[in-house]
Task: structure prediction
Amino acid sequence: MAISRVVLFLFFWNAILWTPARSDLVILKLDRKIDLTSQTVRVTSSLKIENAGPSTASKVLLAFPSHQARNIAELRSFYREGKSKVSSDQLRVELVEPQGMPPDLTFYAVQLQKDLRRGEILNLDVLAVFTHSLKPFPEQISQTEVQLVVFQDSAYYLSPYVVKVQSLGVKLPSKNVESFTKFENSKLIDSEIKYGPYENLPVFSYTPIVVHFESSSPFAVAQELLREIEISHWGNVQVTEHYKLVHGGAHNKGGFSRFDYQSRPFASESSSFRHLLARLPPRAHSVYYRDEIGNVSTSHLRGDSRKTELVIEPRYPMFGGWKTSFTIGYGLPLKDFLFQSEGRRLLNISFGCPIEDVVVDDLIVKVVLPEGSKDFYSSVPFSTKQWEEIKYSHLDIAGRPVLVLKKTNVVPEHNEPFLVQQSFTAEGASDASFWIFLLFVAYIVFMHVDMSISKSSASYISKLQWDEVQTSLQHVLSVINRCLAVHGKLEASLRDLSRTGDVRSCKAARKAADSVFKELLKELNLALGSLQSSPQAAQIWPKVEELVAKERELQERLILKHSSVVDSYEKKHSGREIENRIAAHEQKLVALRHEVDDLIEILDELC
Amino acid sequence: MAANEEPKGAGALRNAFGNILCFFILLLIGVIAFSIRLFSVIKYESVIHEFDPYFNYRVTQFLTKNGIYDFWNWFDDRTWYPLGRVIGGTVYPGLTLTAGSMWWILNSFNIPLSVETVCVFTAPVFSANAAWATYLLTKEVKGTGAGLTAALLLAMVPSYISRSVAGSYDNEAVAIFALIFTFYLYIKTLNTGSLFYATLNALSYFYMVCSWGGYTFIINLIPMHALLCIVTGRYSSRLYIAYAPLVVLGTLLAALVPVVGFNAVMTSEHFASFLVFIIINVVALVYYIRGILSPKMFKVATTLVVTLGITVCVAVVAVLVAMVASSPTKGWSGRSLSLLDPTYASKYIPIIASVSEHQPPTWPSYFTDINVLAFLVPAGIIGCFLPLSDASSFVILYLVTSVYFSGVMVRLMLVLAPAACIISGIALSDSFNILTQSIKVHLGKLLSSASVAGDSTSENSASQTEPKASKHTPGEKSEEITKEKQPKKNRKKEKEKEKGTVEKVSNKKQSEKRALILPLEVSVVAILLIVLLGAFYVIHCVWAAAEAYSAPSIVLTSHSHDGLHVFDDFREAYAWLRHNTEVDDKVASWWDYGYQTTAMANRTVIVDNNTWNNTHIATVGTAMSSPEKQAWEIFNSLDVKYVLVVFGGLVGYPSDDINKFLWMVRIGGGVFPHIKEPDYLRDGQYRIDSQATQTMLNCLMYKLSYYRFVETDGKGFDRVRRTEIGRKYFKLTHFEEVFTTHHWMVRIFKLKPPKNRIRGKVKKSKSGSKSNAANKIEAKGRQNPWH
Result:
């Protein structure tokens, strides 16, 4: 949107301003320095511009060939005051499409803070950072060979303005230069190639130069980097970075010999790299470094109060064209990065990749805000693509809002802090307490719900009935047991009688037993009644009936025996006679008692 | 004693305390079982171990990513190239499904655990479960005390730890739990006669079938026990309920598992269960008929049926024998056969014999793996005979069979471990019981003599009778035996007293008990010794868990004077393959590294640890044992791009490919007879020094392993074989080195593309022996098994 507005704006103003501005500005002096020591090409130009025309100028145009412009990662411009003082104020630089310009050129316009009036002079510094501008040549080298790269640019500064005096310096990583385009006023001093000075060149002067030189700096390119910054209001910012790294230099050919690599560590490391250095924020903790198959054990962490440095070593030395992928993660104290103002929370954290000298092709930064965050927006010092997502983790209900920022062609210059503002309400936040509550509810429900399959099912009813049968059966058995106990008492009284001859106490015992028997009979009938009515009892009913009958018989016999003994005592029969009289009874009693015991045992097992 | 004095309420309270104590002890046992297995994570990292777990992990990843239906239909084209493998139909899915559903449940609660983490911790979680299952099983056999002791022993038995440390994500991890739990449910059904438990038992058996091929152990052991019960006259309806539903439901369910399928009714491993099923039905019928017929009639019927039955049986057995005999392996799978006949594998199947865990164990390995349990087991067996119940006879049978199996294969030591733990638990708990009881009695006497209170002596005698009474009920529900559950005993005692039968018996028991009371000093010393033994066991287990069994084997460490050194070469190589080769490239290596290559490097392999196709493995073995050119032809015909060899000579890693090489020769020679083992041996000795045979020094494995090795120290001293290598300087013509890891442990070579044909023709015509060359090619073609 911003761009379209700019385009519209330009379209409107072009007719009035543009054509004169192009010719009116004159570059009095231009100093251009190209730094080729690393894989990113940094071009610093200092311009001294005079407005020679009648009208005021509000912007300065910068021109790049389109093939170069594609690789521009960053373009910055500053005012320069005096010799080396550079103001920290960055000027706005925008992509523009002025009319009437040669094709295959891309233009950027530096918006001046203050219009440049006629005759005024302006000092401007422009920094342009290019990626993928060093081409390895030859494209394939063997393990022991040295990597050579080619860089192409113009000896003259490509500009829509007339340049009065200009010079160019190309800084190389080493003295070993394979070749460079010889040109007037060009010379190689140490590791720097100088072109110029050249004077009074017309607009759009262009003379290609080629530098072919030795470069042993690591060409680490992260094809994809996903940074996930997760804010937890418990006091932690968790950063997780997933890298897909490739060595962007000359491809390795003819295999890899570990022997050659180990025997000549310095020579062979020229085209490969082994370590990467990540500069993490101070007080980073819980640092880990792993990939999809586990922890990578080759890493070192050192740090003090001002910085934390993590040296990571990929699983294998990286040769040209080799790829790897890994993940590093660390926690940061929340109070270092989250600030509060006017009820809003402000996250201030660095945007780019913490690893030194890495070019990132596609960088995605995901800021995971706590559940319940609202009205959040970000302010990033450069243009990014943005959208929102929802992420669920750690027992979330509503999910956490995620702000996603995407940028291509990221260089270390982008390692700047950015801001995310948010307002946070506790209502939207659900935490573990919700689940604990749910657990309680579930428990309560569980305790109050009858889990049996059905109350009316046949099996359930039969089970109930069976329970009833069992209780009444137990009742019957207990009654019978009591009867048997009374029997015991009667027998005891008889024994006492034979010992003491106290007929009266024996009779009393008999009387008591009779009354107990009556009571028990009542109880027994009650229990039997309920037992008989139940269909489930049909199986055991005959046994119970038999038991009751036998017991009654036993009882009768016993009473008979008792009365006959007492009778005999009263009639003063001799012991022998008494025994004769009751012998038959005794025999029967023992047999009956045995049967009753058997029956009780059988029924007992059923209970 | 105190409980005795107090009214019933106090007894209930004490019971409740006992239960809570028991619960917390079990909880702690679970924690111990889980945490003793975390040494590997703490000392190394949270990573999947060894070989098979990597395959399981890969399958789990597939399951969680693609869902259950795709999983059943998964045809894996990353392995056994060019044949592929139907994973869904050839894998025991129990472990995968368990971990997969654990992951799914966690993730549906938005708990962000990765599949890898879940897989790593599956084994420890299930060992806690196994400890609890052991408690249940032993409780059914001998009561709570023995149950807790057995659970504690199992929680840290080294044999089980060796298979279930965190990261050892293998079938055994869940299978041992399933095994014990199935046994528990069987015993529970046997004790209760409940059809509910019988059904659960079948389901648990189903889970076991899903989890591990060792389920055949269950389906043979339980019939053996049922048969034992029948033979010893212990048949009851409970036995029928415990056995018959298990066979019927269990077999039906087992047939549902794709990898088992019709094997559940077709292979000999399952015949025992069907035979016993028939027998138990006959026995049940006989009991039924005896119930309804008068004794005379029954005798007549018996003679009739026996004559008829024997003829039918003979006929059936004849048919069965004929059927079994008609199949070449007699209906038994190779692994089962090697169980029955320990010499079978070494004679006929080198591929089974080549696996170290299929070798018979040595005596020291018994000591490392079950430690003091080996000495406690005999005592426990005596404990099981006092009194002998259905349940305790089962435990004895389990022990005896598993001792035999563990003697055949070191891997089956794992099956022995639970049995040893249960029986040792019984031994420990029984001896503790007797000793503490003796001390109690002596202390009571001391107290009473001091206080001269008549009451306390009577109490003492009462307390003495109690445990005896409880010990008394042999065949009945063993849960009531529990020595700690005082109130139950009290109740029982009261009941018995009511019946008026108890007095005589208790007198008898009292005399028995008197005999078990040991002198005070002896008891105290014995308890101290037992505690010492236990402490020794714990120390040994912790040592085993921390030192012996925690190494993940893909990361090696060594301690040297300058500290810990990590050898992470395997993952270095796999990561390199993963990132720097084409997705469709085929990698050839010995089958040991197949699973790891597919899982970690995500590349297609020729053979892997599944070893289902002997010919294919023999082809790779042949290639490794052939000279370079023939090997190149074989590999090229298999579309192989890279060859991976493991070489330990530089750092002294003993289980490398050179040490496994004779197996490659044997397996290769078993299929392709031109590879002859004697060609690689000098006077029957395997050597790689200057005395080695020419065939050995020319074979591909030698060349790939030692390529440019001599340049490291100038002599080529192999630290594993402790000798200088025989052939030091040579060049590779058909392979080129593309990657070697930091410690040279893994070396990857690439097949060079074939040379330009025109040049070759020119050369041939120059040499002028066209027919000769053609002959040579033909001869070579014959040697190459793929032509």
Q: What stands out?
A: The first strand of chain A starts at residue 25 and ends at 35. Chain A touches chain B at residues 254-259, 263, 291, 293-298, 315-316, 321-325, 392-396, 435, 481 (CB under 8 Å). Residues 25-214 of chain A form a domain with the Immunoglobulin-like fold (CATH 2.60.40).
